[in-house]
Structures are given as C-alpha cells and as structure tokens.
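Lay summary. Proteins are chains of building blocks that fold into shapes, and those shapes determine what they do. In this project we predict the shape from the chain. Here is one chain we studied, written as its sequence of building blocks.
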Amino acid sequence: MISNAQNHLLNQMQALESLASGQQIQPEIRNEPTASFGELMQQAIDQVNETQMQASSLTRAFELGENVDISQVMIAVQKSRLSFEALNQVRNKLLSAYQDVMNMSV
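And here is the predicted shape, written in a compact code that computers can read:
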C-alpha cells in the first residue's frame, strides 16, 4: 500500500523525469490532506509493533517445533531489533530537539 506522501513523491519524481527527457507533462495536483506528524509517528510505532509481534510469533512457532525455517526467524528478529532501534533514535532526536527549544531564551 502506497501512502499519500509516497504517492506525492512518486508524482514529483515522474514530473522531473519528464522534464529531464524534454517532455512537458503537467504534474497531477491533488489537494489531499497530509498526515500530521503525530499520525506519522503513530504509524511508525504501529509498524514497529507489528514487526515485533511477527518476530515473537515466528520465534514461538520455531520453539514449539512447527515447520518454520530458522533463517526466517532470525531475519524477523533482526528486522524487529533494527526497526525498534531506529524508532528509539528518532525518539531521542525529538527529545533533544524539544529540550533545545525549551532552553531557548525568549
């Protein structure tokens, strides 16, 4: 599923490609509401949670002796760890930016 932001970026890239090749194509202009920052963060958190649940499910299935390949389990666990670490880094940067703003003198 392509999000609105990804779709908008794809349209911009296609317009730039057409300009580079010498064709003059009008880009599509849409007045779609953009997602707020909070909504984007919530989506990211939900995606990280989903990867963690999938890794947990595969791990449990492997431990119970079901027909699950160990490589699938390890890949799911690594994806889960990386996505959580990335989300944690974003949180740390946001907290740091918030603290910088709060420490500014007016």
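What the prediction tells us: Residues 15 and 27 are 6 Å apart (CA to CA).
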